[in-house]
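ESCALATION

Customer reports they have been waiting on this structure for their group meeting. Please prioritize. Original submission:
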Amino acid sequence: MATPHARLDRPAARPKLADEVADSLRQAILQGAYEKDAKLGMEELADELGVSIMPVREALIALSNEGLVNAEPRRGFRANPLTQADLDDIFQIQAQLGGVLAARAAREATPEDVETLRRLHAELEEASKLPEGEERAAQLEQLNGAFHRHINKIPAGGRLRWFLRLANRLVPRDLFAPVPGMTEGALRDHPAIIDAIAAGDAEAARHLMEAHFIQGSDLVGYTLPGTE
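Update from on-call: job pushed to the front of the queue and completed.
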């Protein structure tokens, strides 16, 4: 008879401060706040963020694993912003994973799923008519995200969604509404994607979703310093 494993001791709860610092620094680097090879001094960052040096160091090490920071002996940590080639690669990954999930969704979507997608797109259209400003941008961002998340969660594929979330971390947040062409692309592309899913046409859903994502690298690249 096999001996049961000893129960693991539960670690004490720890704040996710290093994760929060990493997220703040990640977004700053992605949005062009630091030029390539700009020094990221731990003391200066800790003072700016109002935290101790330890979570800053942990955050910089985490970001070095993502390629957004270079950690060099005797030189410390230096920023490594995305290039246009990086953006192209990231959106290509998003396109491939999103395409697979859309194809699977076309095979598995229920009428209720299709109705939800049509409702979300109709709300997106209404939000696009609002006056320019923070409220419009927030609604567009939320509705576009909800549209894609609903497609992604229709089929099985937890690991695919996990990989997609990793890729999404390397795209600056809150860019959907401000980037010229992004809202227009969604309003143009979403109806055809919905129709393909409603018709159970997996190949069309995959193709349309891939094309929808790939256009994003150029659109986002035009807005970010240092991505030429």
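Sent to customer with the following note: Residues 103 and 203 are 6 Å apart (CA to CA).
Escalation resolved.
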